[in-house]
Amino acid sequence: MYQKTIGYSRQYIDQDDINSVIEVLKSDFLTTGPKVDEFEEAIKKYLNVKHAVCVSSGTASLHIAALSLLNKGDKVLTTPNSFLATSNAIVYAGAIPIFVDVDAHANIDLNLCEDILKKGNSIKAIFAVDFAGNMIDPEGLIYLKEKYGVKILEDCAHSLGATWKNYKAGDCKFCDVATLSFHPVKSITSAEGGCIVTNNDYIAKKALMLRNHGIVRNKNEFIYKDDDNPLYFEMQDLGFNYRLSDVHSALGLSQLKKIDFFLETRRKLAKIYDAAFVDTQIKPLHTNAESSYHLYVVRVNFKELGKNRSSIMKSLKSKGIHLQTHYIPINAQPFYQNMGYNPHSTPKALEYYNQCLSIPLFVGLTEQDQKFVIDALKSEILS
Ligand SMILES: *Cc1c(COP(=O)(O)O)cnc(C)c1O
């Protein structure tokens, strides 16, 4: 029997996207050609920022941004409720993550951040994640930045397109650097891909160098004299191959043109869920209306209802509905526990994890499928 699978998220690809990629495949450049520049220009324009440096993944963007902000041994406040890449980037840079508990939005709690900063623990930076697409209060971050001199990295993997009053996720008005991901489940996709955005010239220069093996080709920036070789270049730092290809950039560029439609659709679907769960024990995660709705998360107190989340997930899966739990607290992972971290140090993140479910939300979700999901969820959880 054919049965449809409805996952928690998926990409939305149209004929324009396909044509853009085919065009590159027929051109002279598969990588590091004009499409990378065009994609970067479009991102700069969309976010109104000075620099955009595209790289091969969101993780690569976090790695490079971390290297541009941190020195070995620096302490960084971050959230346990994120994809692993956020805190891994801190560890890649030889720095030390400090997991801070979450607030009612399941975002890093800025009051707890201030408690730590007040004690003068020489914290270098805050790596903040706009969880599910719901921005962290920019004014709260500016306050901490100005009062305590911490650097701010905004991980916008979920929040491209989200706004808060006059602020936009990734606009770099309240952070030193922001990172984007173009993985298929994110706001827009380039299949794999990411970007570092900043108004800081030093960070941008460092990112450009690190994404291509630490190589410098600008004559004026050479450390040694260039000899007669017209192709002379210098490796000035230990970098990587984190370049984004023209094929990926063409897809990303084509997707970015549709971002307003994507956001509008996600917000419309979210409103339908909001209305369906009013006055029930299925509690939508608090968000503001300008969330980019990367995820639609509901919280359910399974214990109180005498229910078991795991069996509910399995039963829904048998009907074709694949739910997710975002996120297992990072400090619960064996790698981090072996380093001495412990999920009980952030009890709210742990409690949140035990109650959360990410339910299907993506641009191609049909009205009929959404209704099927709502009815199935209600009958599993509320009956
Ligand atoms: C997806 C994601 C990343 C990593 O992005 P990739 O493109 O998959 O490497 C980083 N941080 C968060 C919060 C994410 O959701």
UniProtKB/TrEMBL annotation:
UniProt key word Repressor: no
Keywords recorded for this protein, A-Z: Pyridoxal phosphate
UniProt xrefs under InterPro entries: DegT/StrS_aminotransferase, PseC, PyrdxlP-dep_Trfase, PyrdxlP-dep_Trfase_major, PyrdxlP-dep_Trfase_small
Pfam families hit by this protein: DegT_DnrJ_EryC1
Gene Ontology MF terms: pyridoxal phosphate binding; transaminase activity
Active site per the UniProt annotation: K186 (proton acceptor)
Residue ranges the record marks as coiled coil: none
SUPFAM superfamilies per UniProt: PLP-dependent transferases (SSF53383)
Gene3D superfamilies on file: Aspartate Aminotransferase, domain 1, Type I PLP-dependent aspartate aminotransferase-like (Major domain)
Residues bearing the modification N6-(pyridoxal phosphate)lysine: K186
GO biological process, one term: polysaccharide biosynthetic process
PANTHER family: DTDP-4-AMINO-4,6-DIDEOXYGALACTOSE TRANSAMINASE, TRANSAMINASE
Family of this protein: Belongs to the DegT/DnrJ/EryC1 family.
The protein, known as: UDP-4-amino-4,6-dideoxy-N-acetyl-beta-L-altrosamine transaminase
Organism: Desulfurella multipotens
